[in-house]
Design brief:
Number of helices: 6
Strand content: 5-15%
GO molecular function, one term: toxin activity
Family: Belongs to the PINc/VapC protein family.
Pfam families: PIN
Organism: Pseudobythopirellula maris
EC number: 3.1.-.-
Shape: elongated
Largest sheet: 3 strands, parallel
Structural class: mainly alpha
Radius of gyration: 16 Å
Length: about 140
C-alpha cells in the first residue's frame, strides 16, 4: 500500500477547507486513506507546525486545536509513529499555558522516563517530568 508523509500544507487545507483548488485535493487524499487505498503518515514535526500555524496565523484557540488535531491521531488511514506521545502532548497543550514544544518535550520525557534539560520555566508546570535547569 502506498504511504504518504503528510506535509503541513496538505493537513491545513484539509482541516481549514479554505482553498478552492487545494482543499478538494486534500479531502480526496484523506478519503482515499479512510477507504484503505493509501496510508497517510502524520509526523511529529507536521503536527507541531500545524499547531503553530493554527495558533499564530489563524488565531485558533487551544481547545479547538487540541480537539481538531487530536481527532486526526488514530483516524482510519492515518498512521502516527508516536501516537501516544502526540496525544499526551496535545492534552498537555490544552490544559497548560505552555508552548506546544514544551508540552511535546514533557510528553516525550514522561513516555521515555528521561529528564529534560532546559532553562524554560514553563516545564516546571509538569509534575511528572524531571527537569535539569542548571541549579
Amino acid at each position: 500500500m502506498k504511504r504518504y508523509l503528510l506535509d503541513t500544507n496538505v493537513l491545513l487545507r484539509f482541516l481549514l477547507a479554505d482553498h478552492p483548488r487545494l482543499t478538494p485535493k486534500a479531502r480526496r487524499l484523506f478519503e482515499r486513506a479512510q477507504a484503505g487505498e493509501c496510508r497517510l503518515v502524520l509526523t511529529d514535526v507536521a503536527l507541531a507546525e500545524a499547531v503553530w500555524v493554527l495558533e499564530s496565523h489563524y488565531r485558533v484557540g487551544r481547545k479547538a486545536i487540541t480537539e481538531t488535531l487530536g481527532s486526526l491521531i488514530g483516524k482510519p488511514g492515518v498512521a502516527c509513529p508516536h501516537q501516544a506521545v502526540l496525544t499526551d502532548a496535545l492534552q498537555r497543550y490544552g490544559e497548560k499555558k505552555c508552548d506546544f514544544y514544551d508540552c511535546y518535550l514533557a510528553a516525550m520525557a514522561a513516555d521515555s522516563g528521561d529528564a529534560v534539560a532546559s532553562f524554560d520555566r514553563d516545564l516546571r508546570k509538569f509534575d511528572d517530568v524531571e527537569l535539569w535547569d542548571g541549579t
